[in-house]
Amino acid sequence: STVHLPQYLRVAVGNSQGLGGTKGLFHRSPSGYTELWLIQNNLDSKEDAYLTAVHEAVGHMGLRGLLGRKYNETMRQIRKTFPREVRGAAHRNGVRWGHESKRAREQHRNLAAEELVAYATERVLAAGAKSKQRSTWAKIVTFFREALRKIGWVNRFSERDIMDLILRARDHFG
Are residues 58 and 121 in contact, defined by beta-carbon separation less than 8 angstroms? Predict the structure, then answer.
């Protein structure tokens, strides 16, 4: 239950979205370790626990690890490409969309885009992509799309780009 979460975590999560229906979360502890927490009282089954762990580990931790400094720009492009879906993810997760501070507004909107990718990660990996390998062709296409994105010729994400991002985040994490 959320009662067993460390105080620093209850405060951090409570400030952003509350803990009511939260199934899992990851957070960097004060000592610098990345922690993944599952909240048993909010999980319906072993499959729900597995999907929640995938959501947090690959869809959040793996994605952030993979993107590094490219995180903000990538999330901005995902928001631009899938605006309705990102707003839906914000609503489902209690992510505040309209914030007074421009910086906080960007952070919250990026988090909503990240949630969209994390939910897609659950669907992709639950659908059997666990063992799916990226083909050589997919790697080539990704390489060229990233090169074109760097010079500004490609500034939107396709569903294939999202799928590739998920598989790369999975590979980065594991």
Answer: yes
- Angle (CA) 78-84-122 rounded to 5° is 65
CB 126 within 8 A of CB 143: no
Token digits of residue 14: 């409570």
**What angle is formed at CA 88 by the lines to CA 18 and CA 58, rounded to 5 degrees?**
70
Q: For 122-159, how does the pLDDT look when each residue is reduced to its tens digit (9 = 90+)?
A: 888 877 654 555 566 666 666 667 766 776 777 777 77
What does pLDDT average to over the chain? 80
38 has pLDDT over 60: yes
CA dist., res. 109 & res. 93, Å (int) = 11
Mean pLDDT, range 28-33, rounded to an integer? 76
Task: Determine the 3-state secondary structure of 121 from DSSP.
Answer: helix
Alpha helix (H) residue ranges in the chain = 7-16, 46-56, 63-67, 71-81, 83-93, 102-124, 136-150, 159-173
- The answer to pTM > 0.85 is no
- Tokens standing for 74? 């990538």
Instruction: Give the closest residue to 88 by CA, choosing from 127, 61, 115, 48.
Output: 115
